[in-house]
Design a protein that fits this description.
Length: 923
């Protein structure tokens, strides 16, 4: 028998520097078994559970010797499982997994916060990087060495000229006032007997650099700082040596003349110190190319800084996860060379062909080319809200000045860009393919899902959705990787079900939710964007009134629920329960105590149901509906968006009733269920006419009514017919905007209109998904006309939210979804629902119990010009992992319930069954 695989601690495959004393462990049961009956865990620190009779393979809390700062152990597991023949057999032992804790207490730190002593601080976006260095002598190479490091800003750490680790953009993006991640590194191999050096390069990063659409700067402070502690265990009996940041370190200029996450990075290699550690009075002449003599190093300045906010990782680290070669390099008449990498990504380039000594090369990054073939950034310029009609610069420009040193390579690791194209300006020599590389920079998430079908355009659609997510998964789930790079709550609540199917986003989301909780206002409002500087800042800023919108704030409930469904781990619900209640308290109080002025003017005395209507305050509403009015944030402050907000009020309350049930809070679950029913009835009273039609007629409002269960069973056909009417009136085009689009196709398929769902999916005139594909998109656009028919770009060309449609391909086309009431993929439904002439489809998902695969094909006789025939044959295969059951639903066949193993089914084509309860995982 094989062994358990995919060992994890706190959902992480790399558990280095954890801040959890009782980490939760998990594994995937051995393949080829039907179910686990027991397990045994042993660890290098003496922990041995003995045989534990249990089918659980996740959320197993460590219960060995007490752990504290620096504790380290390796654990392994074996299981007892039932084979296909019905006998219990012990597995082999798994491969061991190391777990190591970081520094858990402020008292563990002897290091001090230090920084450069800046006599003057440049304007935001134009601030240089600094080096902080220290040399020391060791009598012998250490037996074991760890470095713990973090920063106010972005840091890179070098020991003896070698970069420490492969993590990027450390310490990462968090709400720094409450949470600052510390990276722990094993640096044993980098140290040697004799003279050694520590060197950190420090830049503004998220801490004080420009950020977001509004280009705010100095959000967390006005000075950068660095904190590091090197701990060495010397040869036996020699004890431990600790070297920390303090006033003995030196601060100096670097080749990074400016670095900013939005504006770009500027490097002058003539000022490079070659990674050497400067000494006081040393002007570094021997380490540099001739021409520039920077100021001598000075003593670093000890700065004040919190040790209470320091913590370990919850998410995988950010890395360069892929490198792309150019697909073309074009020299323009201007002399500029435009490099096309064939794919819109997030990251930077690596340039190995620099100019002559002293020659500056400019790199302008963009998503699209203008009519002249040059990179354009015009569509990425943000509005200047303080100067109506004005726009800010789009940023995304790097420069590099060569020194002429051999092997000089430019890789701007202190900024990031969203781009497919780079305009290389000022380089006389022709670029060759090997001279320039695009680096994809993102959180190193494990892929766990896949999809493929017989239709090439749908495969391309799925591909661009995946790329869009990869480009927006750097540290936090961002809206776009160029213009804003912001962790908008609404975007992630829409896309998280899709993301959780394709990638393991558990730790990634837990990390982000920790910031969402920290950024919550005292009155319960959820900030639009996390991480942020906190309630005191976001509530007082110029656009602070936009926080607290329905569909955005509801992420605090919807996102944890989706991660619970994906993993079966209820701890994420418990972690966020208090914040959920504060948010619901804000909504409930607002609905009960405030009344829209329009409604008050119509009837001075409110009707009984109105205390359940949330119709005041700022709401984004459906946002960006095709052919809808241009968004007006200031007008939205007084608009009546009650039909949208009340729908989310009901949906959030319904989910919280379910969450309370999962957490064993029976009384609260009952109260919340009653409130949910009251809100549903109020919505129906206010927004349905006597015949059951939605009074504020739009595709989005009809979709929400059906998806959120706002209409009674007798009125579902009426609202469904109204939705179909609206779609046909739009020329069989979708009319949904930001919030409702993920639900559109499932609602149609779940209410008897599978054919129309496929018509919309395959529509290739604007607005549609395939219009993006046909116009050459490599990522999902923010607007349906991101590149219009004339080829002009509009707003961001990398926004994943509309890409949530690919869940329809997983759940309906391929036919794999969780069963209602299941969490952690222990019960699934397999029900392919082919359409649009698709003759085959396959999908897979690696859940907590192992990989589930579904694949089907249709015989040639299954499709005719008028649609699917009744005389074709659908052949389906499915692989079900240990501890999982599947209900297989095929046309004309009785439901079949099967367990683990490989299964094959065949059924006649024709017919279709609607299952409204399966429309989305939240339902």
């Amino acid at each position: 028998m094989s062994a358990p695989t995919r060992l994890r601690a706190e959902h992480l495959s790399e558990a280095m520097g954890l801040a959890v004393r009782e980490p939760r462990l998990s594994w995937t049961p051995p393949a080829g078994t039907t179910g686990q009956t027991a397990y045994r865990i042993t660890a290098s620190n003496g922990w041995d559970t003995g045989r534990i009779a249990s089918a659980e393979s996740s959320g197993i809390a460590y219960s060995g010797p007490a752990l504290d700062s620096r504790s380290r152990f390796e654990w392994r597991v074996r299981t007892w499982d039932v084979t296909a023949g019905g006998t219990e057999t012990a597995s082999d032992w798994s491969q061991p997994m190391p777990v190591e804790l970081g520094l858990l207490h402020p008292s563990d730190w002897t290091a001090q916060w230090i920084g450069p002593g800046e006599e003057a601080v440049n304007e935001p976006g134009e601030r240089p990087g600094y080096a902080l260095t220290r040399t020391f002598t060791l009598p012998a190479a250490p037996e074991r060495a760890r470095t713990y490091a973090t920063a106010h800003g972005i840091y890179e750490l070098f020991i003896n000229g070698q970069r420490v680790g492969d993590q990027q953009l450390t310490p990462g993006s968090t709400s720094y006032n409450t949470t600052l991640q510390v990276q722990a590194y094993d640096v044993t191999a980098l140290l040697a007997a004799g003279l050694n050096s520590l060197r950190a390069v420090l830049t503004d990063g998220w801490y004080r650099g420009t950020f977001g659409y509004t280009r705010d700067a100095d959000m967390y402070g006005t000075h950068t700082a660095f904190l590091a502690q090197l701990e060495l265990e010397l040869e036996s009996g020699a004890g431990r040596l600790v070297i920390g940041t303090d006033a003995s370190w030196l601060a100096s200029a670097t080749e990074v003349t400016s670095a900013d996450l939005m504006a770009g990075q500027h490097v002058d290699f003539r000022a490079a110190d070659g990674g050497e550690s400067p000494r006081a009075g040393d002007r570094g002449k021997g380490a540099r190319a001739p021409g520039l003599l920077p100021a001598p190093p000075r003593a670093a300045v000890v700065r004040s800084g919190s040790f209470d906010a320091l913590t370990g990782p919850l998410a995988p680290p950010t890395r360069v996860t892929a490198e792309l070669a150019p697909v073309s390099i074009t020299r323009l008449p201007s002399g500029h060379q435009v490099v096309d990498f064939g794919q819109n990504i997030h990251g930077w380039i690596r340039l190995a062909a620099l100019g002559a000594p002293g020659e500056t090369v400019t790199l302008e990054y963009g998503e699209v080319l203008g009519p002249d073939g040059e990179v354009t950034r015009d569509h990425l310029r943000p509005h200047d809200f303080r100067a109506p009609g004005a726009f800010r610069d789009a940023g995304q420009v790097d420069t590099v000045t060569a020194s002429g040193a051999a092997g000089e390579v430019f890789e701007p690791r202190h900024t990031t860009h969203g781009f497919q194209f780079v305009s290389v300006q000022g380089l006389t020599a022709d670029l060759h393919q090997g001279d320039i590389t695009a680096c994809l920079v993102r959180t190193d998430l494990e892929r766990i899902g896949s999809f493929h079908c017989s239709d090439g355009r749908l495969n391309k659609l799925h591909e661009i959705v995946e790329w869009s997510f990869l480009g927006n998964s750097c540290e936090v789930p961002t809206d776009c990787p160029q213009r804003e790079k912001a962790g908008w709550t609404g975007d992630w609540q829409l896309f998280v079900p899709t993301a959780a199917y394709l990638y393991d986003v558990t730790g990634f989301t837990r990390k982000w939710l920790r910031d969402v909780r920290a950024d919550q206002w005292g009155n319960g409002v959820i900030a639009n964007i996390s991480p942020s500087p906190g309630p005191a800042v976001t509530s007082a800023e110029f656009m602070g009134f936009t926080n607290g919108s329905s569909g955005w704030g509801d992420a605090i409930v919807m996102v944890p629920w989706e991660i619970y469904l994906a993993t079966g781990d209820a701890s994420i619900l418990a972690e966020n329960w208090a914040a959920m209640n504060r948010w619901l308290g804000f909504v409930r109080t607002t609905a009960a105590t405030q009344r829209h002025t329009r409604r008050s003017a119509q009837a001075p005395v409110p009707a009984a149901h109105e205390k359940f209507l949330w119709d005041t305050g700022f709401h984004f509403g459906e946002w960006m509906e095709p052919d809808g009015p241009e968004p007006d944030l200031f007008a939205a402050r007084t608009a009546d968006n009650g039909i949208v907000a009340t729908a989310y009020y009901r949906h959030t309350t319904d989910l919280m009733a379910r969450i309370a049930g999962v957490l064993g809070l029976a009384e609260e679950a009952a109260h919340l269920a009653e409130l949910s029913d009251d809100i549903r009835d109020a919505w129906a009273t206010e927004y349905l006419d006597a015949s059951g039609r939605v009074t504020v007629a739009s595709q989005a409002n009809c979709v929400r009514a059906l998806a959120f269960g706002l209409v009674s069973p007798e009125h579902r056909p009426t609202v469904t017919a109204q939705l179909v009417e609206l779609i046909r009136e739009a020329g069989t085009h979708l009319g949904t905007g930001f919030l409702a689009t993920p639900y559109l196709l499932p609602v149609l398929a779940g209410n008897g209109h599978l054919g129309l769902a496929y018509e919309l999916l395959m529509q290739d005139s604007e607005p549609s998904w395939l219009a993006m594909v046909d116009r050459g998109a490599t990522t999902v656009w923010e607007l349906w006309n991101g590149i219009d028919a004339a080829g002009t770009a509009h707003q961001s060309l990398n926004h994943y939210s509309k890409g949530a449609v690919v869940s329809f391909l997983h759940r309906y086309t391929a036919g794999l979804r969780q069963a209602p009431g299941s969490a952690g993929w222990n019960r699934v439904v397999i029900e392919p629902r082919p359409g649009a002439g698709i003759t085959s489809a396959a999908t897979s998902h690696h859940g907590p119990h192992g990989q589930i695969t579904v694949a089907w094909t249709l015989s040639k006789s299954a499709w005719a010009p008028g649609g699917m025939t009744d005389d074709g044959v659908l052949t389906l295969t499915a692989d079900i992992p240990s501890g999982t059951t599947a209900e297989v639903l095929l046309p004309g066949e009785p439901a079949a319930v099967v367990g683990p193993g490989h299964h094959t089914f065949a059924a006649a084509t024709g017919g279709d069954t609607a299952h409204p309860e399966l429309m989305r995982s939240t339902l």
